[in-house]
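Q: Structure tokens for this one, please.
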Amino acid sequence: MKSIKYLITCLFLSLTFVVSKAQQTPVYNNYTINPFLYNPARAGDNPDGGVINLGFRKQWDRIPYGPVTGNATWDSRIKESNMALGASLTHDRVGKHIMNTMASFTYNYRLPFNKEKNHGLNFGIQAGIISQKFNFTDAITTDGIFNDNAAVTNNSRATNFDLSLGINYHFKGLNVGFSVPQLLNGKAKFRGNGMNKETSMFHYEREYLVLASYEARFGGKDKKTWMITPSLMFRKYKSIDPQIDLNVMFGYKQLVWLGAGYRTGGGYGGFIKTNSAGFHVTAGAGIKERVNLFYSFEMPMKDVRSNFGYTHEVTIQCNLAKKVDKSEYERNKKKVEDDIAKLNQKTDEVGSKAIEAMDKGNDLADQVKNADNSIKEAFEKLNAQEDNIKEIASRLDNIVFKKFGSIYFENDKSELTAEAKASLDAFKSKLAGMKGNYFIYLAGNASQEGATDYNLALSAKRSDAVKKYLEGVGISQRILLLPYGENSWVTDKQDNEADKAKNRRVDIYLAGE
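A: Here is the predicted structure, written as tokens:
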């Protein structure tokens, strides 16, 4: 008799394990609102701050002890970095005697492909524990087998380490992710009590999930008044048929949501397959974009609806952002202010350059005015020199003109260079050895870059600079200045920079017997 009772107990436990494996990871309808439930790579999706989600799910409300699941999650980015953190706690009761508690911590790294960080890959790792408890102390059966010492009559618990991995590709409103809960495929061991201390054991099945969604926004000035988000989830256990969940969610101004979905069946035979398939609708409302409340109603297939009833799920979402702004401008207020500051800085720089240009213009006007005066002085000196030449020529016989050398200047300059001064020092040494009556004739020249009048004044300044240096080193001979500007008979050729450089000079001539 005891052997028969023990066999019945083992069969009951085996059936319980099958049901538990079919819902090893709790099933949610509101995962579209909180995708972090299924994929650790979705932690930190909200760029404005952390998010807390509280969920409650009552499955098959006509069954006295239908599955009940409660969960709490938190996830948030780490300031402006590419990392995010998350934590989750789930308590799942399957029937009256089976309870699962799962706690985990998540680390997420975001690999951006652009500066806006709206395109890239996310990698998430989730580590925690799974504790499963079987409570038979208050079990009541028709034949009382659970009160027999031959059966498992006390509580039994198994605790295992859990590890999940996830990856998610995102581009603007598109998200495509893949995750593997229960990656380690651990073992749960339960030791019996009473006379037959047998050990029961099963593996946590590794699960494979693919989630894809696209959020499109449109309408209004900022084209974000309305939202539509279609999504798809594919899940597969090793020993259970694939399951597909299709959803679509509509939203208005982040304040009102309405969605619908369908989940296909999967599992061992018609019983589990029938109970796991069904339609569901979701409605949500927001309060100042701080707190969002969602309710999901699920209706199973027709042939089991009368026996199992319906499923209800509630999610409360709290946004932890310090300030929730109401417009794109306010959300980017700091950036706008920085752009305005940069624009003001550029305006100031342009204004400074304009003032500098005006100052240069005034300087140029002064230079033109000075050039006019220099031209007048040059022509006065030229007339006086011509008179002097005639006077000297009348007193000298056999006048001879001889070019003694040239002194060169930099572009638009009348100052003597060190090389020019050295040439004039050498000219003084040669002049000291000369005898007879003679005078010095300085012919100033300029290239053709500037205006004609300006070039004439510049050539006069260059000739005067040479005269003053010669007088400064002790040359006492008469020195005559004749500025030609750009119109000298030897400055016509100016095809290139080398020709122009040769024309920026003063030619030194000696005239005498």
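A few notes: The helical segments are 2-22, 269-276, 302-308, 328-331, 333-395, 418-432, 452-472, 497-502. The radius of gyration is 49 Å.
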